[in-house]
Amino acid sequence: MSSRFVSKPRANALAMSSATSIFELRVPPSSINAIFKKPSSQRRFAMSLVELLVAIGIIGVLVSLLLPAVQAAREATRRIQCQNNLKQIGLAIQNYESAYRTMPPGCLQWRPFRGDPKLKNFAWSALILPNMEETNLHRLIDFNYAFDHPANQNAGRTSIPTYQCPSVPFRITQRGRTDYGGLYGQRITVQSETDNGVLIYNRPIRYREVRDGLTNTMIVSEDTGGSDGEWINGNNVFEQSGGINDPNAWIGDNEIRSKHPSGAMALFCCGRTQFLSNSTDRNALAAMITRDLGDTFDSE
């Protein structure tokens, strides 16, 4: 009996030993390592502090290089939109001239400082509203009363996108803002009779009176930040006293100013627009503004 049968614990040990021997014979060690090795996707990589600082530095340099280019591209887009605004204004003035055979007066019933409040003081930019698809707003204005009469309060606070340069920050407190003013004249080269421009008080100018040429004579320009920057207010016409974006010009005066970095946009009587550099010669600028003094300038 003892020779035929083996105890159960011993039989189990023998079986395990045989299985291990067979496994070692049939499965190479390299395959065993491959079975229990973690997939590469589950490996964890870490960056040292120096590597992290180098990566942050590279990103900072790239941002500093790209940010000015992005800002310049955005400003170029805003300048194109500003130019389109002036083209729309120019087209409206031409349509007004076709209807009335005159350009609009710069101000209708001009009111001087501390003048009679019954004087209406309506701006050219209010008179051309029907010619720029703002007929409903034009009907809302009661021209029997002054521009600042309570009857015209709702109309006067209405925002008109065409009258707003996109480079100018939005100001909630300012009603009916306009960033474009009419050229009453210039006092750069003359000190008397400065109503030598096109949009003057109480009198409309005809094309034939612009003897310096419609192509050579400005009628509207950017005038951002002026104290009278409302499209309904007739005081948004002005006489130019200095250069483009002149830092020496009094901030309380309406002047050719803009939020563009190197100049300002202007509209000429013929409907063309031009970006005038801050370095524009003052005498040339004066010649662009006057309508019939016979002065000339280099268009370049």
Description:
Helices cover 34% and strands 10% of the residues. The protein is α+β, with helices and mostly antiparallel strands and 300 residues long. The strands form 2 sheets. A 5-stranded mixed sheet has the order 5-3-4-6-7, sandwiched between helices. A two-stranded antiparallel ribbon has the order 1-2. A hairpin with a 4-residue loop joins strand 6 and strand 7. It starts with 7 loop residues before the first helix and ends in an 11-residue tail after the last helix. The relative contact order is 0.13. The N terminus is likely disordered.
Quick description:
It is built from 7 helices and 7 strands.
The ordered string of helix (H) and strand (E) elements is HHHEEHHHEEEEEH
State the helix count: 7
Q: Which ranges are low-confidence, i.e. pLDDT below 50, for 5 or more consecutive residues?
A: 1-6, 19-25
**Integer tally of domains:** 1
Question: Helical percent range?
Answer: 25-40%
- Gross morphology is globular
Quaternary state reads single chain
Biggest sheet character: 5 strands, mixed
Query: Which strand order does the major sheet show?
Result: 5-3-4-6-7
Walk me through the topology.
Blueprint: H1 8-26, H2 29-36, H3 49-100, E1 107-108, E2 122-123, H4 124-127, H5 135-140, H6 153-156, E3 180-186, E4 218-222, E5 237-240, E6 263-268, E7 273-277, H7 282-289
Parallel strand pairs: 3-5
Antiparallel strand pairs: 1-2, 3-4, 4-6, 6-7
